[in-house]
Specification:
The chain has 312 residues and is of the alpha+beta class. The chain contains 7 helices and 11 strands. It has a 6-stranded antiparallel beta sheet. It has a 5-stranded antiparallel beta sheet with strand order 1-2-3-4-5. Strand 1 and strand 2 form a beta hairpin. Helix 1 packs parallel to helix 2 and helix 3 crosses helix 6. The longest helix is centred in the N-terminal third of the chain and has 25 residues. The radius of gyration is 20 Å and the shape is globular. It starts with 8 loop residues before the first helix and ends with a helix.
């Protein structure tokens, strides 16, 4: 299979907007049915061999243990219980409204009852419209949805390789239904004081110093698929630092500076994963050094911390 195959936003924008809302429906079920983790680590999806999964949830809220999986090979939503019960339906031909209704029915069929606190999109243009009323978003092109999963899987493995080089606190590599990106975040132990007007989602996500690396598929504000990295809080002078490879650059984004590398500038070559890793590493080292992190002490070459094991 081609390394980083093309995924131009224009080819699947309508399908992406529908799928984004599908993932928010299930994401809000995950939010209601999972155990809370620091920095919202309980909420995102993880990539599987055929799609993405919520991972197991339930039990502590009185529901049986269950998972919800998107299958982007067979193009179905599959709900499974720990007792072997299963309910599924096709993703083809669904509006957000029908997807919402059929998802809740599939859960009910295996004995799960979940109440979403806010059953409408989060931070999307139609955020005030309930999922149950959205018949507008109903596009689903199986070719491009499968391609999205292929890219997600490949990028996820690059992020796993990047994650392996850090021995401090680091998030899982996970796929966010909020911004529809995949990312991994390195943390320091220093707390970040935030203003009283900061929203609860941001407060929890950025309660410690972070350096994050990820990839998004593009949207109206940033229309090209892009690898990105940033530090929060942003150390002074960070955007003066050089980046690798040469095609990478700093851009203004939401009041700060964001390092970006266009997906199409690296895709296709056998060295593409290495060039993306060089990009992430160049941002991390610049940001960590300027923020005063112990870069060498937190290094974990090849995913190994023990010097004896590293030397064998």
């Amino acid at each position: 299979m081609e390394i980083f195959p093309p995924v131009p936003l224009a080819e699947w924008k309508a399908s992406k907007e529908t799928l984004h809302r599908f993932t928010q429906v299930v994401g809000k079920i995950r939010l209601a049915g999972s155990v809370r983790r620091n920095h919202w680590w309980n909420v995102p999806y993880h990539v599987t061999g055929s799609g993405i999964t919520t991972r197991p949830m339930g039990l502590t809220d009185g529901n049986p243990v269950f998972t919800i999986d998107f299958d982007f090979v067979g193009h179905r939503l599959v709900v499974r219980g720990l007792d072997g019960s299963e309910s599924s339906f096709s993703l083809l031909g669904q509006s957000v409204s029908s997807f919402h209704r059929r998802t809740l029915a599939a859960l009910h069929a295996i004995g799960v009852e979940v109440t979403m606190e806010h059953p409408h999109p989060f931070d999307l243009p139609d955020g005030r419209r309930p999922f149950a009323e959205d018949t507008e978003h109903a596009a689903y092109d199986p070719f491009w949805v499968n391609r999205y999963w292929q890219v997600l899987s490949q990028v996820g493995l690059v992020l796993e390789a990047f994650s392996a080089g850090y021995s401090g606190k680091v998030s899982p590599v996970h796929h966010f239904w909020h911004t529809f990106d995949i990312a991994v975040t390195r943390f320091s132990d220093r707390k970040v004081e935030q203003g009283p007007d900061t929203d609860p989602v941001t407060r929890e996500a950025y309660s410690r110093e972070v350096i994050s690396a990820g990839f998004w598929f593009g949207d109206d504000a940033f229309p090209r698929p892009t690898f990105y990295s940033y530090a929060a809080p942003e150390p002074e002078g960070l955007a003066d630092e050089p980046l690798l490879p040469e095609a990478a650059r700093w851009v203004d984004f939401r009041g700060g500076r964001l390092a970006v590398l266009d997906y199409d500038d690296v895709r296709g070559g056998e060295d593409a994963p290495r060039r993306v890793l060089d990009f992430y590493e160049s941002v991390y080292r610049a940001a960590a050094r300027r923020a005063g992190w112990d870069v060498e002490g937190l290094a974990c070459p090849g995913g190994v911390t023990d010097p004896v094991v590293a030397g064998t």
